[in-house]
Amino acid sequence: MNGAESLVHTLIACGIDTVFANPGTSEMHFVAALDRIPGINCVLCLDETVASGAADMYWRTKGRPAATLLHCGPGLANALANLHNARRGRSGIVNIVGDQATYHRPLDAPLTADTEGWARPVSGWVRTAMTADAVGHDAAEAVAAARTGTIATLILPADTAWTEGGVVGTPQPVPPRPTADASAIDAAAEVLRSGEPALLLLGGRTLTDATLRIATAIVQTTGAKMLAEMFNARMERGQGRPPIERIPYQIDAAVHSLEGIRHLILVEAKPPVGFFAYPGKKGRLWPDDCTVHTLADIGQDGVAALQALAERVGAGMPEIAVTPRPAPAKEAIAPETVATSIAALLPDDSVVIDEGISFGRGFSRFTHGAAPHLWLQVPGGAIGGGLPGAVGAAIGSGRRVLAIQADGSAMYSITALWTMARCNLDVTVVILANRKYAILLHEYANVGANPGRTAMDMLDLGHPDIDFVRLAEGMGVAAAQAGSMEKLNELMAASFERKGPFLIELLT
What we know:
The protein is an alpha/beta fold. It contains 19 helices and 17 strands.
């Protein structure tokens, strides 16, 4: 058994069943091992950013890690933006990165790079396997690290893959998440009993139906409020589930949402800050006279902490308001009408990938009445995660996926459409085609400037217009254009009934 074969056997033994791959020369022995040893679904991606984005959303829907296969340091570099998003979303991923043979590195061949150095900022675990007999053990450690919700990067020099002497690694147990301090739970209970204005800020793994019911019971009993973080890895939403709003992106609205709060209680969340700095604006969003308390930090079990807090304050069964499911909107195309139609037509138990950027930013409050669904965002802010995420979510969940996708960010990872077609994934992509980087026009105004010709040329996506229908069809995805709400409703409803991917270019 060579090192590559021991790697495949170890991954399978540790529960890895999917690899999102963009291999190169240094990884050919791993590719050959995957060919000889059944048990892993190999998904070809045409760019490493698609592989990493797919692995991110696979974790968020499946609850266990997939692996990526990346070609040397530059391949890892192509994957970094969506690995940044995955790190912010606390996703578990096992990166397998090929490298020069150990004895070839000193020759400084063109693809030689500081692969470990590039991996460390986005990884919680990094190691280079130096011998064939170490590969299996290192892989088992990588999977164990990824199963805790971190990115593990294993660098595999080519000679450790082809050399005989590989040993299958032993699966390792994953330690339970640390519990919150009893003193933190007591302090939060005391704050909530005080009657002073308080707010629970939820993030991480707390945004499930069951946990939101606990949080809702707490705020209904104590008179506190609750919000979710600005961007979240996953939220269970829809009819019958407790609705929760997020801290707004726009800085003044975000400050207003926390106005008057005297106690901010963090539950697997970070203290809220502005996405960017602006002249004369606050960076920290909470009021100056507000005290920040941590019930459970991002590495602790916030669900158990909320359960304990509910007992401390005597919370009972929550009352969940039922938001009626709306009819599809027929008015002019606008954020609220598009969101209303999504709420009306979304299938039961589907997954929504939200990279709507500026046009889609307000969709949340109009979609509480949709059928029960899972809503996934891009918490790291690196654009281009939406289409790859749809690939990973469809494979990880086996459910219908709706990808709400801004047009500018779609172009960062457009080749994900090809993988959707190749795998015949049940994905509906709605491209919000406003022909510009609309978010940058807002940001330009936020810094007090009015765009002139040069600025507009850098923020405009016209001249020529991008034809998403032809792009999709060229990669094997059926597509159509919608210029009215009636046409959007018709195309969305039909796409949800068909097998395979479908793209709708919505002219906004």
